[in-house]
Design goal:
This protein has 17 helices and 14 strands. The strands form 2 sheets. An 8-stranded mixed beta sheet has the order 1-4-3-2-5-6-7-8, with helices on both faces. A 6-stranded parallel beta sheet has the order 11-10-9-12-13-14, with helices on both faces. Helix 2 crosses helix 17, helix 9 packs across helix 12 and helix 10 crosses helix 15.
């Protein structure tokens, strides 16, 4: 038994289930992005393929995420047990997991967030990693030198050691091949879905409560995502200002960085204080309702590995406007409206069209089929078994 780890062995009535190890650190510790993806995969596998055994490795657990899945006898949580392992939990994750994979006789280990543990080359089972994006290489100025060095080393190691590299989008697949020289044959695109709640119509009462709680305007365009340069919210703000609509307001939801100062400066300069609203840390239960209350969704980001907010907007059955960049057209398909990232006039035209649009539900549903959780999980299991 590994000295620093609390390992529980599952029992199962299935004769030959697969033993699947999952790096669940982000699922238990991160609110957005990698956390959402990790929870999506884990919950999807548990729901659609409960006959297999799942080992969730995490160095730490935040209380708010400890109950994201339904415990059952085929799911075992593996955390540091010794004082040393708990004290140096990040080292436990990096250096101890590979040995445990063989000890537990796992068939598969899947790194859900861009990395595989050191020593994984000695693991006799199948090694899989999901790479979400290589933004730190495409936009190096947004990252410090040390971060860039660490990310490059971890990502390259993972791609080299993995039997299969899962890319969050065709865009990410191209980047993996281009930057790391990874063989195209071992890179597969594996999309994700958003929370089911975005596709479930909110009741009139829910809408009333949420609108009141956040003092939302009657009619508004919505932007969701960290307020940062790459997300390009200033272009959205400028287009909104030029639209000069008598009743439409603009609502930003996302954590603010220094870039937010540019938006606030523009708002002050053009006296838009009563037309633009900023919100942060919206609970998961409320966010889908806010989408459904909005008149349109705008995603002006210059670069994304996937672009889950576009999917959230589409499932909310509202007009979606996205920058014609990176992976965004993959997610938006023929349903979304597109503009060049810095083209304020182009975005302005999209907003005008969206105000008069009734989404084509048939085309929308056809497009969304490729992101259905059951379809995505079946594809993932096929990769596990290949």
């Amino acid at each position: 038994m590994h000295p620093t780890s609390n390992i529980q062995h599952p029992t199962s009535s299935i004769q030959h289930p697969m033993r699947i190890g999952l790096d669940a650190k982000r699922a238990f510790n991160n609110g957005t992005g990698l956390g959402n993806y990790s929870r999506f995969v884990i919950n999807g596998l548990l729901k659609h393929f409960p006959q297999h055994e799942y080992y969730l490795f995490t160095p730490t657990i935040k209380p708010e995420y400890q109950n994201f899945y339904t415990p059952s006898e085929n799911v075992k949580l593996i955390t540091p047990e010794s004082l040393l392992g708990k004290t140096f939990s990040s080292l436990w994750r990096t250096y101890s997991i590979a040995g445990m994979c063989n000890e537990l006789k796992l068939d598969i280990f899947h790194g859900l967030s861009n990395e595989l543990p050191v020593g994984i080359e000695s693991f006799t089972g199948k090694k899989i990693v999901t790479i979400h994006d290589l933004i730190f290489l495409r936009y190096p100025n947004y990252y410090g030198n040390i971060d860039r060095y660490i990310y490059t080393k971890k990502f390259k190691h993972a791609c080299a050691q993995a039997d299969w590299v899962l890319a969050a989008s065709e865009q990410t697949k191209r980047d993996i091949i281009s930057y790391f020289g990874t063989s195209e044959q071992k890179v597969k695109v594996s999309y994700q879905n958003c929370n089911d709640a975005f596709g479930e119509p909110a009741t009139a009462e829910q809408k009333e409560i949420v609108a009141s709680t956040y003092s939302l305007p009657e009619q508004f365009a919505l932007c969701v995502g960290t307020i940062e340069q790459r997300k390009n919210q200033l272009t959205a703000l400028q287009a909104f200002h030029k639209l000069n609509h008598p009743t439409l307001k603009l609502v930003f939801i996302g954590k603010q960085t220094d870039y937010a100062a540019l938006l606030l400066e523009y708002i002050d300069e053009h006296q838009l204080q009563h037309d633009v609203q900023f919100l942060e840390q919206i609970p998961d239960l409320d966010l889908p309702v806010i989408y459904q209350l909005s008149s349109m969704f705008i995603y002006a980001s210059e670069f994304e590995g996937f672009g889950i907010p576009i999917l959230e907007g589409l499932r909310s059955n509202i007009p979606v406007i996205a920058a014609n960049a990176s992976s965004l057209p993959e997610v938006g398909g023929k349903v979304a409206h597109y503009f060049e990232p810095k083209d304020v006039s182009g975005l302005l035209g999209c907003m005008s069209n969206a105000l008069n649009e009734q989404p084509n539900k048939e085309i929308l549903q056809q497009h969304l089929k490729q992101f259905d959780t059951s379809t995505l999980m079946a594809s993932l299991l096929t990769i596990y078994q290949s």
